[in-house]
Amino acid sequence: MRSIETGLASWYGHPYHGRAAANGEIYDMEKLTAAHRTLPFGTMVRVTNLSNGKTVDVRIIDRGPFVADRIIDLSHAAAEAIEMIGPGVAQVRVDILSLQAITPAENWYAVQAGAFQEKDRAVRLRSSMERDHGTARLVQRKGYPTLWRVLVGKERTEDAANALAEQIRREVGTGFVVRLDEPGASPVAGSPSSGSQQ
């Protein structure tokens, strides 16, 4: 078992329950699953609530959380198992139990530079990021409200993406690394994706 990170976990349920997760399966908030920004789909992790020592094993099926200070988004059932429903967030440690293998062709990362409910604001940021960094695209998160995410770059390694994220944070104040699950997709404004986190 390999510890990968410590930070804040959150959880999500409605209105995403019954909708497609980013890996294409239907999200059931009463199953032990989670969203992570960079781990491959199918990876199994153990999440430990550091305030009470309770643990839960979850499978990564979705992308998120799309909030800079959080590291994992748990299903309702998983959050309940480690007693974090009431507080809503908890300080946790994430340990890898089994890492889903991916091919080098699937191993790409980008930086989320912003997320907006207003598409025109996202389009403006995408345009400036594309001008400054060469590649930027919009990814629509379905749900209510719809959220337009601005993803910048296409990096082969997480380290390279982290370096880009540091540069983008200096420019716009926010930026965190996400895995590109469809690396071959054209970086055209408005291309949809089925991510579902906050």
Can you describe this structure in just a few lines?
This protein is of the alpha+beta class and 198 residues long.
Short key terms for the protein model shown above:
about 200 residues, alpha+beta, Barwin-like endoglucanases, Alpha-Beta Plaits, 2 domains, 3 helices, globular, disordered C terminus
Write the layout of secondary structure elements.
Elements: E1 2-12, E2 33-35, E3 44-49, E4 55-62, E5 70-75, H1 76-81, E6 89-98, E7 109-116, H2 119-133, E8 136-141, E9 147-155, H3 158-172, E10 176-179
Parallel strand pairs: 1-5, 2-4
Antiparallel strand pairs: 1-6, 2-5, 3-4, 3-6, 7-9, 7-10, 8-9
Q: Strand order across the biggest sheet?
A: 1-5-2-4-3-6
Which parts are unreliable, with pLDDT below 50 for 5 consecutive residues or more? 184-198
The third-level CATH topology of the largest domain is Barwin-like endoglucanases
Residue share in β-strands: 35-45%
Distance between the termini: 28 Å
Give the H and E element order.
Answer: EEEEEHEEHEEHE
Helices, by number, come to 3
What is the gyration radius calculated from CA atoms? 16 Å
CATH homolog superfamily of the largest domain? RlpA-like domain
Quaternary state of this entry equals single chain
Structural class assignment: alpha+beta
Q: Tell me roughly what share of residues is in helical segments.
A: 10-25%
Number of strands: 10
Overall tally of structural domains: 2
Per CATH, the class of the largest domain reads Mainly Beta
Structural notes for this entry:
The structure is a single chain. The chain folds into two domains: 2-98, Barwin-like endoglucanases (Beta Barrel); 105-179, Sporulation related repeat (Alpha-Beta Plaits), CATH 3.30.70. It has helices at 76-81, 119-133, 158-172; strands at 2-12, 33-35, 44-49, 55-62, 70-75, 89-98, 109-116, 136-141, 147-155, 176-179. 18% of the residues lie in helices and 36% in strands. Strands 1-5-2-4-3-6 form a six-stranded mixed β-barrel. It has a four-stranded antiparallel beta sheet with strand order 8-9-7-10, with helices on one face. Strand 3 (44-49) and strand 4 (55-62) form a beta hairpin. Residues 184-198 have low confidence and may be disordered. The longest helix is centred in the middle third of the chain and has 15 residues, at 119-133. It is α+β, with helices and mostly antiparallel strands. The chain is globular and about 45 Å long. The protein has three helices and ten strands; from the N terminus they run E-E-E-E-E-H-E-E-H-E-E-H-E.
